[in-house]
Amino acid sequence: MNGARRRFFPIGLTMLSNELTSKGHEVRIFDTSFYAQYGTDLDAKRRELGFYKEIKNDVPLQTKTTNPVMDLENIVREFAPALIGISALSIDFSISKDIARLIKEISPDTPIILGGILPTVSPDECIQEDCFDMICVGEGEQALVELSERIENKQGYSNINNLWVKKHGQIKKNPTSSFKTLDSLPVPDWDLFDPQHIWGPLYGRMYRVAPVELSRGCPYRCTYCVNDVLRNVYSGSGKYHRRKASEKAILDMLYLKNKYNIEMFYILDETFLAVAKSEIKILAEKYKQKINTPFFTQTRPETVTEEKAKIVADMGCKVMSMGIENGNEHIRNAVLNRKVSNEQIINAFNILKKYGIQTSSFNMLGVPGETEQTILETIELNRLCKPDSIGVSYFFPYKGTSLRDLAIKEKMINGDEDPNLSNDVPVLKLPSISQSKITNYFVNFVELCKS
User: 121: domain CATH number?
Assistant: First the structure.
């Protein structure tokens, strides 16, 4: 399920469904992504703000006009599942609860498990909801397969690692298990999902895009990012930042390319170039030989070197996105824990452009410590970097992050309730700049950076 209409296959859910089907379990997907009642078209909204170019070969979204409640009721009654799983981000939580409560009315004895980032970073909040029988804390491939097998064999399942199970008012909190190796995951398959997910925009064109993960986790610890929280959740589970072997990565991408007529790969790795040059070179050689398809991805400025840029440009990298986040070095270093200088950032953008790779910048407005001057510094740094496209969002204090704790301590938000999750307005109440002024810079950000 998804709280806003946007294409790209949901990689986490595809992994879970593939793992279950590979073990012989039958799976059905109820996807809220394209119902007219849920959310907005994020791609259209970003084009309005100048983040995306107008699409020349647009493939319009076909929104579903049927009643989602009736559709859900029909699939539950017809399929009669032994287990129902719901995946949720913070922004989706209210929808998740509504759907779970509806399912409980239709099929009160069917156990419901909640997974995803939210129950991982805020498990106590999620398990208290009466509509969820259990939650998954952390990665779910192993736990979900074991849970399904236990249910099928009519065995108890209160002691499965990564699961918090609620029964008769008591909650069993099981530890997280060691990570499943990425090389042991099944070959991805997307036949259960709406085929509209295949389309994605890139610099004025729609492509048949395959999102793929060649690694999981991130080697960095930004204070605003959920990865910092996940490192603590997974403490003792093994190395947090893991990579697929190049052979497995190529096998998966070749299968997707041939089956779904892929025109562009989106490598989802948090920091694609955060690896030794020798490893990138091995992957690039195999990719060029067997896949030979353009791709886009993201990295951090301090990982960019002349040698790596040359390798990935020849490999087929067309666009590399990088986070500027804030143009003030003190805020980046002391508040966001991004220890990179303005000079390094500018140099990274210049190197990528030298090798013909288009660049995109990420920026946040309204972070703790933000002033009008720091926003102007962010705009000026974008002017110096000259990215081909510019993205900007309001800072959001995600649960479990140290910046959320700071925002609550400094009374920038009320810790008793979640702030607005839509990212349509600034969240923090900052002493040094008004929310209305931040909004004005947000709406005009791209134009100001290019002026």
Answer: 3.40.50
